[in-house]
């Protein structure tokens, strides 16, 4: 986190935008003379989502073989973090097994057989099949030496008394177990040089396609790379718009937004059935779809990114509409509905998904909700609580409001510093119960008190007030950039990336502040198009 | 001798048909009285990890030595009490984090007794875990097809932080092949089953196996060459990532070489369901460990009931809060009660594994449990204060006669690494005298 902070006054959310402070448009002094260090991304193993999407696009296989792979760890909020994507013996064994199955299936379907293998002289056709396949699988041109080596499989098959076909299949399996397939390779011609170098065309094509699609480059992108076109910003921009309009950009919804907005955690949400029996599997799915469809519209639509905070529309089916107290749209599948008359449902804080995953099973958690806002929207994460004080004790008397319970809880001096930041943000959402329904009373019967008192004396009166406050916060653009860049590069942001993040945010806001403006600003940035060697690396 | 015995076991199992229903064989002779040479030489290790610590007031037996009684949380062990050693007082000081992050740091140090370096990025590193030291030793002897199995119920939530600035691998893995190489675990019983048993056609001929091996090894040769060439064009951090690839390639190579050395099957089994209910899933995982031991596919298995800091809601125990939330009990009785219920359920699952091993034959007159060490622990003692001392520890099985069971051993303040040294020696690892940050020698009283 850039603003990893103790809970001091200077990192508190501000109620008013002070001129020339924390504002990416005006505060550039410290970044003016910084020569851009693009940093370096660690050799990136395909994660499970990327593996599945890649074999789908490479072989037409939609069986999602990576479901059988061990779970990927995540770092800095995303499971495409190259540093923590390790490769265990178990995983390599799974890759080898999957490769065999994938090749057998695709071969049987005839997709890979672009020519007929002659029994006497199979090599020309084998060479054709193998080199085409390796180029796509390795996402770059292959050398004739590489193909020669792969074709040794034909000799082996012959020795084993097998057909040339068996040899070609073995070569294709080999392609899928090679590090050139399993990793996104970006070579360092000078491994210890700190001087940034521009990525080669194919490395850049892969960065782009794994960012937007979680998958391999398609033919138009590969050809653009082959023709050297990706070196012009205009071509990169055109490719980006083309790719965002493709259904494969759904990956950005499920993989980026799913983790940024915590939608993925819905899978494991377990609201207490005794108290919140209204929650069921259909509702879980409808909530997920709501957030995904709203974000999807932001990818291709003309909305400013900060409008996510209070977007006056959403997608609900009848069940979810009823759950929210909205008029049912008359459909079992989600429909886009206008929320002008329902301010309490506008924006992501009205989404059942977010409200549920930031709650405990049996009660709301203003702390979790507050921390979510601080971490995911403002990048001002508070440090974790000191040992021995975590958790909210049961109410002293059963009619206390959540706000009163929390006030009691944070009376300890060591808690106050952080809780006076987190609590008011979370408390302003108290009108939403642990499964996102609107409520006026807590379970105890006590009336909801959805006011939050910020450290500077500002009082947030409910969610609408809080939204307005967050939407104005100057940290929002750079924080969003930080998350999106973390995802785009597959590495965590450090202090050294501070200026680049600010610059990208400023560029994106200046060009309109839409999600596509942010994506473009990232794609054109040095961070995305360059890398450097590893001068100081040493084994600890 | 080992090989002969395992063959005869397999023959017997084929005859028995359904493996899951092997009859309980009476032990002919009490453990300590049995002559050593009559025991099979194979040793097995199963580790059962539970997150968030234990409510010790309902756990620790009052008696010491052979005069001990089961406490409320240990009650499920009644049918196997004579096979259990309870150890109190052990400490794992390496589990203490820098600042916060007790669950991640405690879990990374759980079996490694090495302090995890606090980071979310490139430079995460801890240490080799004791199960992997054992697995490496057994792999040298080419004992089994799989050096070890890593299992767990949790696939992970996949969002947010894992624990206070500690990278997720620390919180999600107890088994580490090396400082930078967590052994990823499998979280789907069906995938484990398929890996162990599916695709193995009992009718495969030796020639077919030979061909399979030749093809597999050709892939390995090729990709190793690729990686070697690639290595020269990468920076130091990337080369370390590629080292993981090399290590994995070596392991796969060993597996390929071992192909066909062992019988491909050991009877008929039923593939487990995809049920995510922790009761069904845990039982399926335990059955898989027993099955893998019975078929001698591996001799080392670790299992994580949930990932570190799990906030699982145990609704079927009548609980509505999450496990981690309860573990911050704040000295409130209702939280203690909830924890005790969870603890007891956890011990029930462990007891099931112990019982299944006891019911499984391992050579004439011996059970799998006799040759096994079945270890239970957590990353902290008390989840409220995050104490890394007086850890909850159970050890079941005789480890081939090395362990003196049916006792409550008190070892206040002794490093848990010393227990691991004793366990590694019981498993046949030669010349272990130190381990992790503070292991100095065998744990006094381990053998009785």
Automatic annotation (TrEMBL), chain A:
Residues 45-107 form the DUF1587 domain. Residues 345-441 form the DUF1588 domain. Residues 125-186 form the DUF1595 domain. Residues 13-38 are annotated as: Disordered. Pfam families: PSCyt3, PSD2, PSD3, PSD4, PSD5. Residues 456-528 form the DUF1585 domain. It comes from the Bacteria. InterPro entries: DUF1585, DUF1587, DUF1588, DUF1592, DUF1595. Residues 199-326 form the DUF1592 domain. Transmembrane segments: none annotated. Residues 13-23 have a biased composition (Basic and acidic residues). This is DUF1592 domain-containing protein. It comes from Myxococcus llanfairpwllgwyngyllgogerychwyrndrobwllllantysiliogogogochensis.
UniProtKB/TrEMBL annotation, chain B:
Residues 259-279 are annotated as: Disordered. Residues 262-272 have a biased composition (Polar residues). PROSITE patterns: TAT. Transmembrane segments: none annotated. InterPro entries: DUF1552, TAT_signal. This is DUF1552 domain-containing protein. It comes from Myxococcus llanfairpwllgwyngyllgogerychwyrndrobwllllantysiliogogogochensis.
């Amino acid at each position: 986190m850039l603003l990893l902070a103790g809970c001091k006054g200077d990192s508190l959310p501000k109620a008013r935008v002070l001129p020339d402070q924390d504002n990416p448009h005006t505060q550039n002094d410290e970044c003016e003379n910084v020569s851009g260090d693009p940093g370096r991304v660690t050799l990136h193993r395909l994660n499970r989502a990327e593996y599945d999407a890649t074999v789908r696009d490479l072989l037409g296989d939609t069986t999602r073989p990576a479901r059988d792979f061990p779970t990927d760890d995540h770092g800095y909020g995303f499971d495409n973090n190259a540093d923590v994507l390790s490769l265990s013996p178990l995983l390599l064994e799974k890759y080898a097994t999957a490769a065999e199955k994938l090749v057998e299936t695709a071969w049987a379907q005839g997709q890979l057989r672009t020519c007929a293998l002659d029994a006497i002289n199979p090599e020309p056709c084998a060479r054709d099949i193998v080199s085409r396949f390796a180029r796509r699988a390795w996402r770059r041109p292959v050398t004739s030496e590489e193909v020669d080596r792969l074709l040794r499989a034909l000799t082996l098959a012959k020795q084993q008394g097998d057909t040339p076909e068996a040899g070609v299949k073995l070569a294709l399996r080999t392609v899928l177990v090679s590090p050139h397939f399993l990793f996104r390779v970006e070579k360092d011609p000078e491994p210890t040089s700190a001087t940034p170098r521009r990525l080669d065309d194919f490395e850049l094509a892969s960065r782009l396609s794994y960012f937007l699609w979680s998958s391999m480059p398609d033919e138009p992108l590969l050809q653009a790379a082959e023709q050297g076109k990706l070196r012009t910003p205009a071509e990169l921009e055109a490719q980006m718009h083309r790719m965002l309009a493709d259904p494969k950009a759904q990956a950005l919804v499920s993989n980026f937004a799913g983790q940024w907005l915590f939608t993925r955690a819905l899978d494991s949400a377990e609201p207490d059935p005794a108290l919140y029996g209204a929650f069921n599997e259909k509702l879980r799915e409808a909530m997920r779809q709501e957030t995904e469809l709203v974000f999807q519209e932001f990818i291709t639509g003309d909305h400013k990114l900060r409008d996510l905070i209070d977007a006056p529309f959403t997608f609900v089916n009848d069940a979810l509409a009823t759950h929210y107290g909205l008029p049912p749209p008359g459909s079992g599948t989600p429909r886009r509905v206008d929320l002008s008359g329902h301010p309490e449902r506008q924006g992501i804080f009205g989404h059942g998904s977010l409200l549920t995953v930031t709650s405990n099973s049996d009660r709301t958690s203003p702390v979790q909700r507050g921390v979510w806002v601080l971490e995911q929207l403002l990048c001002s994460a508070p440090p974790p609580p000191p040992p021995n004080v975590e958790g909210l004790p049961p109410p002293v008397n059963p009619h206390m409001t959540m706000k009163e319970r929390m006030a009691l809880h944070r009376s300890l001096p060591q808690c106050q510093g952080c809780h006076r930041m987190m609590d008011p943000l979370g408390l302003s959402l108290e009108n939403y119960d642990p499964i996102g329904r609107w409520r006026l009373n807590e379970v105890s019967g006590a009336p909801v008190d959805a006011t939050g008192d910020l450290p500077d004396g500002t009082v947030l009166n409910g969610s609408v007030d809080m939204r307005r406050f967050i939407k104005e916060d100057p940290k929002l653009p750079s924080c969003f950039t930080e998350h999106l860049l973390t995802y785009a590069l597959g590495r965590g942001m450090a202090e050294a990336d501070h200026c680049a993040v600010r610059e990208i945010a400023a560029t994106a806001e200046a060009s309109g502040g839409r999600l596509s403006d942010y994506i473009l600003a990232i794609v054109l940035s040095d961070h995305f198009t360059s890398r450097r060697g590893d001068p100081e690396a040493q084994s600890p | 001798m080992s090989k002969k015995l395992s063959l005869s076991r397999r023959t017997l199992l084929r005859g028995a048909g359904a493996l899951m229903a092997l009859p309980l064989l009476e032990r002919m002779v009490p453990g300590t009285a049995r002559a050593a040479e009559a025991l099979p030489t194979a040793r097995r290790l199963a580790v059962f990890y539970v997150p968030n610590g234990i409510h010790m007031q309902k756990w620790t037996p009052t008696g010491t030595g052979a005069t001990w009684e089961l406490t409320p949380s240990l009650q499920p062990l009644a049918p196997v009490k004579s096979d259990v050693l309870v150890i109190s007082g052990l400490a794992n000081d390496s589990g203490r984090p820098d600042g916060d992050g007790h669950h991640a740091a405690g879990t990374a140090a759980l079996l490694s007794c090495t302090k995890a370096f606090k980071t979310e990025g490139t430079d995460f590193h801890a240490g080799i875990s004791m199960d992997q030291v054992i697995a490496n030793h057994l792999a040298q002897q080419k004992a089994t097809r799989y050096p070890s199995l890593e299992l767990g119920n949790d696939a992970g939530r996949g969002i947010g932080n894992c624990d206070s600035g500690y990278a997720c691998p620390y919180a999600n893995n107890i088994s580490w092949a090396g400082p930078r190489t967590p052994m990823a675990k499998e979280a789907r019983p069906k995938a484990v089953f398929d890996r162990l048993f599916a695709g193995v056609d009992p009718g495969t001929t030796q020639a077919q196996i030979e061909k399979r091996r030749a093809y597999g090894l050709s892939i390995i040769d090729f990709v190793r060459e690729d990686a070697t060439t690639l290595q020269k064009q990468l920076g130091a951090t990337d080369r370390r990532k590629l080292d993981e690839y090399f290590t994995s390639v070596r392991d796969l190579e060993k597996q390929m070489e071992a192909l066909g050395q062992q019988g491909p099957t050991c009877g008929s089994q039923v593939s487990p369901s995809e049920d995510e209910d922790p009761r069904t899933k845990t039982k399926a995982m335990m059955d898989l460990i027993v099955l893998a031991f019975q078929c001698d596919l591996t001799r080392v298995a670790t299992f994580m009931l949930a990932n570190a800091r799990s906030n699982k809601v145990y609704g079927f125990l009548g609980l509505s809060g999450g496990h981690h939330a309860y573990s911050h009990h704040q000295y409130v009785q209702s939280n203690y009660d909830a924890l005790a219920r969870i603890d007891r359920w956890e011990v029930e699952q462990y007891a099931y594994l112990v019982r299944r091993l006891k019911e499984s034959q391992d050579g004439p007159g011996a059970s799998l449990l006799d040759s096994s060490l079945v270890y239970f622990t957590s990353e902290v003692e008390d989840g409220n204060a995050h104490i890394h001392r007086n850890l909850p520890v159970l050890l079941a099985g005789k480890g081939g006669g090395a362990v003196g069971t049916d006792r409550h051993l008190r070892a206040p303040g002794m490093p848990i690494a010393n227990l691991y040294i004793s366990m590694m020696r019981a498993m046949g690892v030669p010349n272990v005298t130190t381990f992790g940050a503070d292991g100095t020698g065998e744990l006094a009283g381990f053998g009785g």
